[in-house]
Amino acid sequence: MSSLHPERFAVGSAVNQTARQVGGALSVALLVVILGTPHDAAAALSRFRDLWWYAAVMAGLSGVACGLLRPVRAVSTERVPAPGAVGGTRGAGRAGTGLHPTPAGSELGCLAAEEA
């Protein structure tokens, strides 16, 4: 989610949570399939060993997948002056600063504009 623009954080969070819920439901279903319905203690012990092997393999694969991830370049939230604009004055807010507004009226970068 760190690569999303601030106005898209809510959507990114919702998609992330949905993916986690679906993944959890599918994982539990797969574990139930592996465990099955053992009819005696020996079969139950054998199935539990299968579950432990499955968990160990998935943990190993997760570690490999995390090792392959590369850092993403951070999105800059710095505001850039409009071409040919003159910097604003302290306390003037956006009026007269010559800064491009961010989408959806976001207040990002206002501190930098006030310090200029």
C-alpha-based Rg, rounded: 26 Å
Which outline best applies? elongated
How many domains? The number is: 2
Strand content: under 5%
Q: Enumerate how many helices there are, as a single number.
A: 3
Low-pLDDT runs: 109-116
Task: Let me know the average pLDDT.
Answer: 77
How would you explain this protein's 3D organization?
By secondary structure, the protein is an all-alpha fold. It folds into two domains: 63 residues; 41 residues, no CATH class. Helices cover 53% and strands 0% of the residues. The chain is elongated. The two termini are 30 Å apart. The C terminus is likely disordered.
What is the compact description of this entry?
With 116 residues, the chain is mostly helical. It has three helices and no strands.
Keywords:
single chain; 116 residues; mainly alpha; 53% helix; disordered C terminus
Topology:
Blueprint lengths: L8 H27 L5 H28 L41 H6 L1
